[in-house]
């Protein structure tokens, strides 16, 4: 971000510089004076896959187990189609409908299309959700690191030891790595991290899928029922209802990537138009990830039936071959290291832009210190960025240590974030941009879609909160081991 700000300042402060060249675009700058974008279908797809395939894939077998063989896959397909449709609406709202100006963030797109009140609501919802996602990813990465340690312990003891592992040191280690990576200035410079993370996501998803297929072959039968987990001694009627609702939240979380879609679109070069490139990238990414999701979820349920674990690779899921499970969990950690940064960038950018706007004369906020790096360009160290981003990571790490509940947190994040960011605001922006008449057939269809998903989100939130409350009864913050 320091590089971009410095470049713009140089442009506007140099009287010899021909501003018309900037406005028309040049070798180094786009038509708005910002540094030239370099993204394409491949890099955008990598960003999206990194954002989509995350910790959510690990809970899909459990989610399908709560819903059953008919409702489970049907709900996943429904979420996939709805997400693709509303993502296409959001992508079309990248530029201001009047001026054609680019929107560098989701909130900027909302501001250019909707009134001030909706924009303020959007900011609150977006940044709270991004904050929650950072916590969720810290929890998931920690669970995978603990699983690697536990697998080694169980293997050495031949399964004789309980192998209780304190998860707090692993959360702290993850936090330290994120503090370092958080100093990457902006989204456009994250392409390499997203590419690595996308490869890692395919790695552990592929391993989970293969282990599910192998387990089904070993069992010789396909487990599970049409209606999902049966009510009986282990599950009461009330728990069945809460779990069903929570499963909807888990699936919604797996598709919650619209929150960073505009930021990804802002990395794409033009021509061709950003909309064309992003539509292609979104189609590729959602097709690939949806196929993975359905296969992983279904084979996980077929392998374990009603006993499908909340986390396929860690909690009473697959144990052998232990070395392959370790590779999968290591891939999860590497993936979430990158995904954490992808989802945190909008928060970083928002706070830093606000600070620079409110305190333009503060050297602590605006000044970059050039640090020479052998064989590379000098790194621009910004002290405010260093301090603020470090504090952000520390807070998310501490919150993760207080609420380390995988399924409950994932379901709640999906319930809270999916409807407003993926459905409501894209629909409202599209209606405003296209000037769709109120009470017209198209307007009614879009509103029915939005209200239907809102009902699902509210049910998912209720179920997830019930799950977290249940977990809190038996958990002691900072003391429990995994």
TrEMBL record:
Localization of this protein: Endomembrane system
Pfam family, one: Aa_trans
Residues in Amino acid transporter transmembrane domain copies: 38-469
Spans through the membrane: 44-64, 70-94, 127-148, 190-214, 284-302, 322-343, 386-406, 412-431, 443-469
A GO molecular-function annotation: symporter activity
Keywords: Amino-acid transport, Auxin signaling pathway, Membrane, Symport, Transmembrane, Transmembrane helix, Transport
Gene Ontology CC terms: endomembrane system
Gene Ontology biological process: amino acid transport; auxin-activated signaling pathway
Family as reported in the entry's similarity comment: Belongs to the amino acid/polyamine transporter 2 family. Amino acid/auxin permease (AAAP) (TC 2.A.18.1) subfamily.
Functional description taken from the UniProt entry: Carrier protein involved in proton-driven auxin influx. Mediates the formation of auxin gradient from developing leaves (site of auxin biosynthesis) to tips by contributing to the loading of auxin in vascular tissues and facilitating acropetal (base to tip) auxin transport within inner tissues of the root apex, and basipetal (tip to base) auxin transport within outer tissues of the root apex. May be involved in lateral roots and nodules formation.
Protein name: Amino acid transporter transmembrane domain-containing protein
Organism: Rubus argutus
């Amino acid at each position: 971000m320091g590089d971009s700000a410095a470049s713009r300042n140089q442009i506007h402060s140099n009287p010899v510089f021909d501003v018309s060249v900037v406005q028309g675009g040049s070798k180094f700058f786009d038509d708005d004076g910002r540094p030239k974008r370099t993204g394409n279908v491949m890099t955008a797809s990598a960003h999206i896959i990194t954002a989509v395939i995350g910790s959510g894939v690990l809970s899909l077998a459990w989610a399908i187990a709560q819903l059953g063989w008919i409702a489970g896959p049907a709900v996943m397909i429904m979420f996939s189609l709805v997400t693709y449709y509303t993502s296409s609406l959001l992508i079309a709202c990248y530029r201001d409908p009047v001026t054609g100006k680019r929107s560098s963030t989701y909130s900027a797109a909302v501001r250019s299309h909707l009134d001030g009140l909706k924009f303020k609501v959007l900011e609150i919802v977006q940044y709270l959700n991004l904050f929650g996602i950072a916590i969720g990813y810290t929890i998931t990465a920690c669970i995978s690191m603990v699983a690697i340690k536990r697998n080694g312990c169980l293997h050495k003891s031949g399964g004789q030891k309980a192998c209780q592992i304190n998860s707090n040191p692993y959360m702290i280690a993850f936090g330290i790595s994120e503090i370092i990576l958080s100093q990457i200035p902006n989204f456009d410079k994250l392409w390499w991290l997203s590419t690595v993370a996308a490869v890692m996501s395919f790695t552990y998803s592929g391993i989970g899928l293969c282990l599910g297929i192998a387990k089904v072959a070993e069992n010789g039968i396909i487990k599970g029922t049409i209606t999902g987990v049966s009510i009986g001694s282990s599950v009461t009627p009330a728990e069945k209802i809460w779990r069903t609702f929570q499963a909807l939240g888990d699936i919604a979380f797996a598709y919650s990537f619209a929150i960073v879609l505009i930021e990804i679109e802002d990395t794409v070069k033009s021509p061709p138009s950003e909309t064309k490139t992003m539509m292609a990238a979104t189609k590729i990414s959602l097709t690939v990830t949806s196929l993975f999701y359905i296969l992983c979820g279904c084979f996980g349920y077929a392998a374990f039936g009603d006993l499908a674990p909340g986390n396929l690779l860690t909690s009473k899921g697959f144990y052998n071959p232990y070395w392959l499970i370790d590779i999968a969990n290591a891939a999860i950690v590497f993936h979430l290291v990158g995904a954490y940064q992808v989802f945190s960038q909008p928060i970083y950018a928002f706070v830093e832009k606000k600070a620079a706007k409110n305190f333009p004369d503060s050297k602590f906020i605006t000044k970059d210190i050039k640090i020479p790096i052998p064989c590379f360009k000098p790194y621009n160290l910004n002290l405010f960025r260093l301090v603020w981003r470090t504090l952000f990571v520390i807070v998310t790490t501490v919150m993760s240590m207080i609420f380390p509940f995988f399924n409950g947190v994932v379901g709640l994040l999906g319930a809270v974030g999916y409807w407003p960011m993926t459905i409501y605001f894209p629909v409202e922006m599209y209606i405003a941009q296209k000037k769709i008449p109120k009470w017209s057939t198209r307007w009614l269809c879009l509103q029915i879609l939005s209200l239907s998903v809102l009902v699902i989100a509210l049910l998912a939130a209720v179920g997830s909160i019930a799950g977290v409350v249940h977990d809190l009864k038996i958990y002691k913050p900072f003391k429990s081991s995994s």
